[in-house]
Amino acid sequence: xxxxxxxxxxxxxxxxxxxxxxxxxxxxxxxxxxxxxxxxxxxxxxxxxxxxxxxxxxxxxxxxxxxxxxxxxxxxxxxxxxxxxxxxxxxxxxxxxxxxxxxxxxxxxxxxxxxxxxxxxxxxxxxxxxxxxxxxxxxxxxxxxxxxxxxxxxxxxxxxxxxxxxxxxxxxxxxxxxxxxxxxxxxxxxxxxxxxxxxxxxxxxxxxxxxxxxxxxxxxxxxxxxxxxxxxxxxxxxxxxxxxxxxxxxxxxxxxxxxxxxxxxxxxxxxxxxxxxxxxxxxxxxxxxxxxxxxxxxxxxxxxxxxxxxxxxxxxxxxxxxxxxxxxxxxxxxxxxxxxxxxxxxxxxxxxxxxxxxxxxxxxxxxxxxxx
Length: 372
Prior knowledge:
There is one protein chain. The protein is elongated and about 125 Å long. The N and C termini lie far apart (134 Å). It has 13 helices and 17 strands. Strand 15 (329-332) and strand 16 form a beta hairpin. It is α+β, with helices and mostly antiparallel strands. The chain has a domain at 239-353. It has a 3-stranded antiparallel β-sheet with strand order 15-16-17, with no helix packed on it. Strands 1-3 form a two-stranded antiparallel sheet. The protein has a two-stranded antiparallel sheet with strand order 2-5.
């Protein structure tokens, strides 16, 4: 029999902690929910898709059942439903050998497909995204309640934009390794975020900027972003200021402090917490730790990659027109300088100059003459 390509629901991939309860563990193991048996019966209305074994001869059910009689087909010839399907669907014989398999494919194809005919494509018993959410409750909760939804979950093929519904060699049934998959969409021009702000072409950005943020260099987008949805700006997994300026509150930088030490921004003087200091004066603290109009990380640092070490920016957007204000940062062996940008030219050195203590003079051994 001609192989039939079947598409149905997929497992959804990992998120990082630090979200509201609904989003903390969206990959909690799905509970397989069997469909109402009435959904597996032949339709009494016009079908959109039909199983070839059923459609070829509706008076002979013996391709799958023990009896030919459609009024009394009896049980299936093979009680292992998935094994019975694979007897005809040769293309799935390879799929069952892949490393990651969708549980319904292993257990029972009719958890997702009507074995006779359907009002949906590919013999599905429901629309693909609704079918996924039948079992994947945690993802359903995220998708319905989060403030910022990842476009991949809501546009085009939805869940199937990222996941293969049967089996793959990639964890979480991804159709490609995670980073490649992200680049398929985010490596293009013209994307915008949920606020309508333009997003960079990540392929171009990374090609032209060799100094990459650690998670980017490790190809771990989910170190900072949730793949389905979030209550935070740009589907971040925790809080981060959305603008260039922000009052300082450690909670607002919870994303950064998953990796970076808060002490580098909370201590006015230090010789160890940061190299961005002038002697012992902590310049991170000076810039960021303000009650009003503190400088957020993005004023000086590119989020993903830059030409300078530590992802220091070439320029920062200024004003509503987006004029790029040059930072003109120059690194030195002991610090660096910024020239004619937010302030007049200023330089710093992280070398702490220690002034040698002057030893007290030794007492004189010469006796003073006593004048009488």
